[in-house]
Amino acid sequence: MAGHPLAKLATRPYHHNPMTYDPTIHHRRSIRLPGYDYSQPGAYFVTIVTHHREHLFGEIINGDMRLNKMGLIVQYAWHDLPKWHLHVRLGAFCIMPNHVHAIIILVDAAFPKRHALPEIVRGFKSRSAQRINVLRKKPGVPVWHRNYYEHIIRNDDEHNRIHLYLQSNPANWMEDAENSGMIK
Length: 184
What we know:
alpha+beta
């Protein structure tokens, strides 16, 4: 056991604090661009997936997404973002059965509280999860995967390509990698 990577943990006194970071056991890497200021103006493409890729927001019928009540809560939380973050403008948005794609645009404006993209996404996830858990009578149960994918949109061509992708996403659900029910 002495040469085992966890051996030094066995000699430490146990203090239950789940928030303490220990690089010998925590290996979560950030997917964010190192040194990039995510509060600066620009357009960002994000994908947020449900916890365990659970189908929560509705279903695809004949290539169209049919939102259920939880999907409507997510849609409302999306449209509510500019009320919470005055420097946010909403781009294309697509709710799928177990994930959400969106373009979030941060504008160049002098607002006293200017949040960066991670805080905006965190707020969206938190507000929608709280409302969904009230609806399903499951307080504190995770709704979202703890991380999210983001891509900095660098030009108009990229923006247009992503916008088209979002528009066609429900029609392509059977081939979508996030579709846990897809035939492989």
